[in-house]
Write a structure and sequence with these properties.
It is found in: Membrane. One of its GO terms (molecular function) is mechanosensitive monoatomic ion channel activity. This is Mechanosensitive ion channel MscS domain-containing protein. This protein has about 675 residues and is α+β, with helices and mostly antiparallel strands. Helices cover about 50% and strands about 10% of the residues. The strands form four sheets. It has a five-stranded antiparallel β-sheet. Helix 18 (about 505-515) crosses helix 19. Residues about 1-55, about 160-165, about 595-615 and about 655-670 have low confidence and may be disordered.
């Protein structure tokens, strides 16, 4: 076992050592690090260091055609430059072309173009012009990524090997893309091609396909009218790689567009911003004035800098892109304002009718308009974002590919936008299935109110006490809700009363009919109904039913009828039938005391709570007989009152006689 393990370790180490040696060998053959500026400018030896004679012995073989395009001669109509261009590698060819053109030596720069599509006698005249135009496009309209331009004779990319396959060698290329421009809404690639003149070394030049497209690209992306009229002294002075006159023109154009927007606003306020007689256009200019003025100003500014200024340089290209983004933003804003305005105008007639419970169609239409308006605004926003991204090639390529890839799209839906999208879809479900509508009278989790608003993600209920209950769509649809206006607004409201067992129910039922007949809110769809629905140990429950044309009217009607029935019970035999609690006193033996015969709490034959019959004396005592109870009768009380009066009169007379009697004579003993 140890020997086997050692053999396996040795094999692994040997394989790793062999792979490292192959990687070092490939790196040495590939030229190592990226060549510096000196190599890019020189390029005679090339980044790959391979002698030209060793590349391929047959110039026109199938294997050679993968490395270059064979040709007889290269631009025989051009004069031979004093200092030939170095075209051995793509980076050297591009750098020498740009240097020669920046020095205004367009005849020398034309040697980097394949003018084979021109007659030999026209190459000397057209070549410098095409070189100047191509230099303008590369210098002012595109940004060259020099790191992407290889400095190898074979044009192979370096540093792109896979870490898992270090032994793979770079693959030679025949074409190198330098930049890309749009021509008539189609992309045009500006390329370098490797060609092999007969009897000469392979060189890199701009192919005939690229050179032929230069006049059209220059006409579309070349200098504007103002730039062509400017003297050279103004176009040559630069500030942050941009001509100074373009900065001045940019400031002037921006100021002019601001003044134009102010002028448009003034004209509209004087002539168009007045109340209109048309119902659909009333208030339209007020709603769209700001985005419309912004859009017009930006479009004018965009047109000026595109036709007259023709921005150049990377900084002003950023300004151009920002302006385009603002144009898309202003257009999206204007579209949203138009959608909201016309949706509100379309829903205004139904808004006033939705307050009536007799018009469910108005509430249905208002709900559809409300949800549809928000969906339309959402679509406009998505369209604006997509339109803005479509103008930027990087965003359109990276953003759209990431957005619509299966994995990224599922991640976005599953994590980031799950709650939002579920509420939006629930809002659409509410608009389609209509469990509630704007203006419906509902009861949700004990809150009674009206549906006031249905937005993208929530429902707003205005309760009877002016509170606003905001409920997310998903939660709203997952809970039961009472919709009192769903099918018909008519409603029956119950009234519960509690009365004594002795209550004559027929009298109360008759009184209910009289009360309802006197109420104008009673719709007479249901006859007066009153029943005993429950009993307890102290009272019985009486339920009355009243109906009205809508829930709010039914609520007020049932409250008024309850008050009237309570007043009737209070006045009926001095409130005798109101609920009461009975207390029955008993003696030490548990017998009930103080029961009047025939009373509500008495038993004429038996004592409550026992089986013993009452005696005559107990019955007389219970009936209040004075003789049985020993209490004085009224005659006795009258006689006692007479006797007491006589005694009071005698005491008064005696007191009066004592006051009028003469004082007694004193005797001798008193002296």
């Amino acid at each position: 076992m140890p020997a086997t393990l050692l053999r396996r370790l040795a094999a692994v180490l040997l394989a790793a050592l062999l792979a490292a040696c192959l990687a070092v060998s490939a790196q040495a053959q590939g030229g190592g690090a990226v060549p510096g500026p000196a190599a890019a400018a020189d390029g005679a030896r090339g980044g790959d260091g391979t002698p030209p004679a060793e590349e391929d012995s047959d110039e026109r073989s199938s294997a050679a055609r993968k490395l270059w395009r064979p040709m007889d001669t290269l631009n025989p109509g051009l004069p031979e430059p004093e200092t030939p261009l170095t075209l051995a590698t793509p980076r050297a060819a591009l750098a020498n072309f740009m240097d020669a053109a920046e020095g205004r030596d367009y005849v020398r720069a034309a040697n980097a173009l394949d003018l084979g599509f021109l007659r030999e006698d026209r190459q000397a005249g057209r070549g410098p012009v095409l070189a100047r135009q191509l230099h303008y496009l590369l210098d002012r309209k595109v940004g060259i990524e020099w790191r992407d331009i290889p400095d190898r004779r074979d044009g192979a990319r370096t540093g792109t090997g896979n870490a898992n396959t270090p032994s793979s060698a770079p693959e030679p290329r025949r074409y190198i893309e330098v930049a890309e421009l749009m021509l008539d809404s189609r992309p045009v690639s500006l390329q370098l091609e490797r060609v092999k003149p007969s009897g000469a070394e392979p060189v890199w030049v701009f192919p005939a396909s690229t050179v032929e497209a230069v006049p059209g690209l220059y006409a579309e992306h070349g200098p504007g009218i103002l730039q062509r009229q400017m003297p050279r002294v103004l176009t040559d002075n630069m500030f942050i790689d941009v001509p100074v006159w373009e900065w001045a023109a940019l400031i002037v154009f921006a100021t002019a567009c601001i003044l134009l927007g102010w002028l448009v606003r003034t004209v509209l306020s004087q002539f168009w911003w007045r109340p209109s007689d048309a119902a659909w256009t009333e208030g339209l200019t007020r709603h769209i004035s700001t985005p419309l003025i912004l859009l017009v100003s930006l479009l004018v500014f965009k047109g000026l800098i595109g036709s007259l200024l023709s921005l150049t340089g990377p900084i002003l290209r950023v300004i151009d892109e920002v302006t385009l983004a603002l144009v898309v933003l202003a257009g999206t804003w204007l579209a949203i304002r138009l959608v909201v305005h016309f949706a509100d105008k379309f829903g205004t007639p139904f808004l006033s009718r939705s307050e009536s419970e007799d018009d469910p169609e108005a509430r249905r239409r208002l709900t559809q308009i409300s949800v549809g308006k928000r969906i339309a605004v959402f679509i406009v926003i998505i369209a604006g974002v997509g339109m803005g991204l479509s103008y930027y090639e990087g965003s359109a390529t990276v953003g759209l590919s990431f957005l619509f890839s299966a994995g990224a799209f599922s991640i976005i839906l599953g994590i980031a936008a799950q709650s939002v999208l579920s509420n939006i879809l629930s809002g659409i479900q509410i608009a389609v299935t209509e469990p509630v509508r704007i203006g419906d009278n509902v009861v949700f989790e004990g809150d009674w109110g009206w549906v006031e608003e249905i937005t993208y993600t929530y429902v707003t209920i205005r309760t009877w006490d002016k509170r606003r209950v905001v409920i997310p769509h998903t939660y709203f649809l997952s809970k039961p809700v009472e919709n009192w206006s769903k099918t018909a607004p008519q409603m029956i409201m119950p009234i519960y009363l509690y009365a004594d067992y002795r209550l004559p129910v027929d009298k109360l039922r008759k009184k209910l009919g009289e009360i309802l007949e006197s109420k104008k809110d009673w719709d007479r769809s249901s006859p007066p109904a009153l029943y005993v629905t429950n009993v307890s140990d102290e009272a019985m429950e009486v339920r009355a039913l009243v109906s009205a044309r809508d829930p709010l009217t039914a609520w007020y009607l049932h409250a008024e009828v309850r008050e009237d029935l309570m007043a009737y019970l209070q006045g009926l035999e001095n409130g005798r039938y109101l609920p009461r609690r009975r207390i029955q006193p008993t003696d030490a033996e548990g017998s009930v005391l103080g029961l009047a015969p025939g009373g509500p709490d008495s038993d004429p034959a038996r004592e409550a709570g026992s089986g013993r019959r009452l005696t005559e004396e107990e019955k007389a005592a219970a009936a209040g007989d004075p003789e049985a109870t020993g209490e004085p009768t009224p005659e006795d009380l009258e006689q006692e009152d007479g006797e007491a009066k006589q005694a009071e009169d005698g005491a008064a007379a005696k007191a009066a006689g004592a006051e009028t009697a003469p004082a007694p004579r004193k005797t001798g003993s008193d002296r």
